[in-house]
Amino acid sequence: MALINVAAREIHCKIVYYGPGMCGKTTNLQYIHESVSSDVKGDLLSIATETERTLFFDFLPLDLGKVRGFQTRFHLYTVPGQILYERTRVAVLNGADGVVFVADSDKSKLEENIRSLKELAVNITRQNKKFQEFPIILQYNKRDLPNALPVAVMDKYLNGMNWTRHEAIATTGVGVFDTLKSISRLVISRL
Amino acid sequence: MDPQLTSLIVPTEEVTQIEECLSHLVEDTGGNYALLLDKSGQVIVSQGDGIRQDITALGALIAGTFASSREVAKLLREKDFRMLFQQGVRENIFIALIEEQWILCVIFNKGTHIGLVKVLTKKATDELASVLERVRQQHKARDEVLGSSFRTSMEDTIDLLFKD
């Protein structure tokens, strides 16, 4: 739930990047962190294992400055994607205003994508939110893979809800900001 | 609270009350810092010695710790752990849940006794719970607070800042 502090004239929104292991959630945040100007971004905080896999979450605060007199902040989080960390994902998802579901375009990852999306639906419903109405943007990442599934096939299995979706190559930044823009606009429209 | 509610608006008067409550808590316990967070990790009010530069990250991590402990509680067939205590060599953190929405956090050093922090934090959580209740009841319409043109201005800002 977004927080509007009238005294401090501040608005805070929480956006969570969700998806199966190694789909590129952290890479999205790293690219955003490298690319936005320093007066907008805070430090990128990562709680990762020694092998750089996300253990708890990554956290990137973005300060959009004053909009109509309100200091507006977006807090971006990623969840750990590995199956083992299901309960941790529930913890990070707590209080989210919107979700970017990052799907891996690798042909062999379709089942993992589907499983992760189903789990997201369960976890949002468990927070007593209506999944159908929850702000979600899809990102089909790793479009540069030679064995990437056609977009139409991914749509068929992952986008039954007709969410806005973006094709991306997070390592080079393709589609990263389009995704961020879409989810930010969507969250703001639901305030 | 309505789970479909998408924003919680904390009016000026309530923010002032929270600030006073946290100030008293820091003063009476001899602690260094007190924070009130939303369960999503956003800092609502902080009071204490000086300005902490790391407050945003601190909020995210404390809320993460709390949410994580709640999942542990569930595995133990508890609803949640209402209080957490983290002990360091110099600094300690005491964290308490307020209803299901807010998290109160007190940072204190070895000069302060944990028992005192516990008792006074309990008193503060009762006070803050009634503030939270008032915030919920007088929930104002978004447009009343932000103005109707906020969304358009926000979209322009997003387009301007979020680009390669």
Please tell me about this protein's structure.
The complex is a heterodimer of chains A (191) and B (164). Chain A has helices spanning 25-35, 86-93, 110-126, 151-158, 176-189; strands at residues 2-5, 10-18, 45-48, 54-67, 70-78, 98-104, 136-141, 165-167. Chain A has 191 residues and is an alpha/beta fold. Chain A has a single domain (3-189), classed as P-loop containing nucleotide triphosphate hydrolases (Rossmann fold), CATH 3.40.50.300. Chain B has a five-stranded antiparallel sheet, sandwiched between helices. In chain B, strand 4 (83-87) and strand 5 form a beta hairpin. Chain B has one domain: Beta-Lactamase, CATH 3.30.450. The N and C termini of chain B lie far apart (40 Å). The chains are: A alpha/beta (191), B alpha+beta (164). Chains A and B meet through strand 1, strand 2, strand 4, strand 5 and helix 2 of A and strand 1, helix 1, helix 2, helix 4 and helix 5 of B.
**Low-confidence segments of chain A:** none
| CATH topology annotation of chain B | Beta-Lactamase
Q: Count the strands of chain B?
A: 6
CATH 2nd-level architecture of chain A: 3-Layer(aba) Sandwich
What integer is the average pLDDT of chain A?
Answer: 93
Shape of chain B: globular
Helix content of chain B: 40-55%
Order of SSEs of chain B: EHEEHEEEHHH
